[in-house]
Automatic annotation (TrEMBL):
Residues 127-156 are annotated as: Disordered. SUPFAM superfamilies: NAD(P)-binding Rossmann-fold domains. This is NAD-dependent epimerase/dehydratase family protein. Residues 3-238 form the NAD-dependent epimerase/dehydratase domain. Residues 130-145 have a biased composition (Basic and acidic residues). Keywords: Oxidoreductase. InterPro entries: Epimerase_deHydtase (IPR001509), NAD(P)-bd_dom_sf (IPR036291), NAD(P)_dehydrat-like (IPR050425). Belongs to the NAD(P)-dependent epimerase/dehydratase family. Dihydroflavonol-4-reductase subfamily.
Length: 332
């Protein structure tokens, strides 16, 4: 298939492009600056160079979207803002480009006669809503809500973008699949690690005397990429959501793995009291987004992707270790 892959310079999208090409597909990757295309090409399988091309697109502008989708068989839309500071003064600086960019991608698919769309959503679009009444783990049936205490700008951006995608797909007859990964760890392709590995970079900096009492749903980038490719190649996945969660890890556990890989960096693995984190967050925007989830440890299930997509998850410890080793190699 020929696939329009948006945001090809991203941490996840680079891996998806690589795996699509390795599987024999053609990739038309979108980026905001065409000058970055050759750096991406250098990371791809050499024998597949003739099956990779680039187009310039912007999430906030209509220019070029319809033309980019012409002649393709499917659209994989990964491009979306993923800021370090998830509580900006104006939440719309995150929400608007996420929602409007998703709508542009789907409108372009419709205009080009492309029915198959894979959307990269997030676990945050699932886990920040009412608790399931039967005490089951959260799963693909659950949705985050705008009035939830944890619904910061990033949560709202992913939730509203996915909601908009499902509404458009139903109205226009598109065959949509959404992939909702947890915190994506694992090794980056190239030297741009992306925002999700910023946690590893911060731990490696050794600047924090303690770590916050926060738990993350972890998944390896290689598994997330595989899920996109399998979903694309499996027509029966149309109309379905898939959570990608290999397991949960506390920040301190992540720090211990990183510290073992970099024993001379003075990395702390002690967990800070919640009150202290709340106080520090008043001065540190990077911590502010963690305040609503301090101590939260609700179960969430990635079993559907294991069963229906055949994802044999890389263990969370291994995903974090691979990320740490890559970041150390990049001199994070």
């Amino acid at each position: 298939m020929k696939v329009l892959l948006t945001g090809i310079t991203g941490f996840l999208a680079r891996r998806i492009a690589h795996d699509l090409l390795a599987a024999g597909h053609h990739v038309r990757g979108s980026l905001r600056d065409r000058g970055k295309g050759e750096a991406v090409r250098a990371l791809m399988p050499e024998a597949a160079a003739h099956r990779l091309e680039f187009v310039e697109l912007d999430l906030t502008k209509d220019d070029g979207w319809n033309e980019a989708a012409q002649g393709t068989d499917a659209v994989i839309h990964t491009a979306s803002p993923f800021p370090i500071m998830q509580t900006p003064a104006d939440p719309q600086t995150i929400i608007r480009p996420a929602v409007e960019g998703t709508e542009r991608a789907l409108r372009a698919a419709k205009a080009a006669g492309v029915a198959r769309v894979i959307l990269t959503s997030s676990v945050v679009a699932v886990e920040n809503g009412p608790r399931p009444e039967d005490d089951r783990p959260r799963d693909e049936r659950d949705w985050s809500s705008a009035d939830h205490p944890n619904a910061n700008a990033y949560v709202r951006s992913k939730t509203e973008a996915e909601r908009a995608a499902w509404a458009f797909a139903e109205a226009e007859g598109l065959l949509l699949t959404t992939i909702c990964p947890g915190l994506v760890m694992g090794p980056p392709l190239g030297d741009e690690a992306g925002t999700s590995l910023g946690i590893i970079a911060r731990i490696l900096s050794g600047k924090d005397p303690m770590v916050p009492p926060v738990a993350f749903e972890i998944v390896d980038v290689r598994d997330v990429s595989r899920a996109h490719v399998v979903a694309l190649e499996t027509p029966a996945t149309a109309g379905r959501r898939f959570l990608l969660v290999a397991g949960k890890m506390w920040f301190a556990d992540i720090a211990r793995i990183v510290a073992a890989e970099a024993p001379h960096r003075g990395i702390s693995t002690r967990t800070a009291p919640r009150l202290l984190v709340r106080a520090l967050a008043m001065m540190d925007p990077a911590l502010r987004g963690l305040v609503p989830v301090l101590g939260r440890n609700e179960p969430i299930s990635g079993e559907k992707a294991r069963i229906e997509l055949g994802i044999d998850y890389i263990p969370p410890d291994d995903a974090v270790r691979a990320a740490a080793r890559a970041m150390i190699a990049l001199d994070a």
